[in-house]
Write a structure and sequence with these properties.
It is a single chain. The chain is of the alpha+beta class and 170 residues long. The chain has 2 domains: 60 residues; 79 residues, Arc Repressor Mutant, subunit A. 32% of the residues lie in helices and 15% in strands. The protein has a 3-stranded antiparallel beta sheet with strand order 1-2-3, covered by helices on one side. Strands 4-5 form a two-stranded parallel sheet. β1 and β2 form a beta hairpin. α4 packs across α5. The radius of gyration is 15 Å and the shape is globular.
Amino acid sequence: MTTAPVDPARTHRLVTTRLGTYVLAAGVDGLVGVWRRGQKHFPLPDRLGPAAIGPHAVLDDAERQLHEYLSGHRPDFTLPLNPQGTEFQRAVWHRLRAIPRGATTTYGQIARDLGRPRAAQAVGAAVGSNPLSIVVPCHRVVGSTGSMTGYAGGIETKQALLRLEGALLS
């Protein structure tokens, strides 16, 4: 398993939203992370870099788009992304971005889409380690029966995001 070294130019910003506090992290090539504070798989401080001071083009745009999305005024994100992961993880994350707003899919379906029909558990692990929550919509993945399955930011957050998108009735 090969992962890229931490970008020495990485920086982060805390953003308070109606769903809690998020940490946005960016490097020179784009957004590398969006994590809900306290979520599973929250990165160690050295992976975040120092707090951004003053304007930062990627973080400013990511913060604006996150607020627009959570207020229902933005259907998708248009940000430069640079998540760090294995080739398989990146393939899963790329597939997550193809799930339309208001729709859901299953781990098994993603495994089949990737030509690896027996890899549903591996897909689940890759979805669970997605470093760009909300922006790369892992909340749109449900269990094979349509059940709410684990979400690093908490099931309540997952349900709130699916309600916002119209994929889950209130």
